[in-house]
Structure formats: structure tokens, C-alpha cells
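Service request form, structural biology core

Requester: graduate student, group of Dr. S.
Request type: structure prediction, single chain
Budget code: on file
Notes: please return the result as C-alpha cells.

Sequence provided:
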Amino acid sequence: QLQLVESGGGLVQPGGSLRLSCAASGAILDNYAVNWFRQAPGKEREGLSCISSSDGSSTYVDSVKGRFTISRDSAKNTVYLQMNSLKAEDTAVYYCQAVYLGMCRPDPHATLYWGRGTQVTVSS
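Core staff response, request fulfilled:
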């Protein structure tokens, strides 16, 4: 059974950077598409970025395009989200989600695996 643990969150000033990690155990994360989501207080969960299981291609929501980068480290069984030029509105709990053999497309039949999240706070 795949288990995911996020880390790397914290308090950072506007304009700063953080790198979030989504570390997997129990399965090979390369076989999963991995999505990063975030949820701010009082707001709906927002999908940010996805990296495919097949070819490593990635997608980004417009609000983070050019600032965030998703990547894999197969040796560490980990997916990262590098976040640069952080803004106050990036403050949220960040979650990773994995989909077996996922292609970064909605699949109502997919089993979704979630981590418990890591808090990111952008404030001066």
C-alpha cells in the first residue's frame, strides 16, 4: 500500500523559496502520477501541478506557472515541488496525491492516495 508523507513546509517571506517533498513508501512512486494540491483556510482545494507516470511530463495551473516546478527523484522515491517567488496568497496546506499509472487526467475510477499535508505560510 502506497503511503505518502509531505515535508518542507514552513514560514517564508514574500519572494522567498521553499522545496516541498512528497516521499513515498510501500510502492514505487515512478509508477504513479503525482499531483500537488493546496487548501487555504475557507477556500476550496486547488490543484497546482501534476507529473505523469508515463513520460514525466508535467502540468501547472496558471497561478503557479513559471514560479513552481515539479520533479521526481526515482532513487529517493520522492516527488518535489520547488516553489519560488512566493506570495502571501500561496499560504495554504499543501498536499500530494498519487494515482497509479496516472496520466494527469481526471479518472473517476482511480484510487487516490493522499499525504497528510504540510503547512506553507508566506508572511513578512
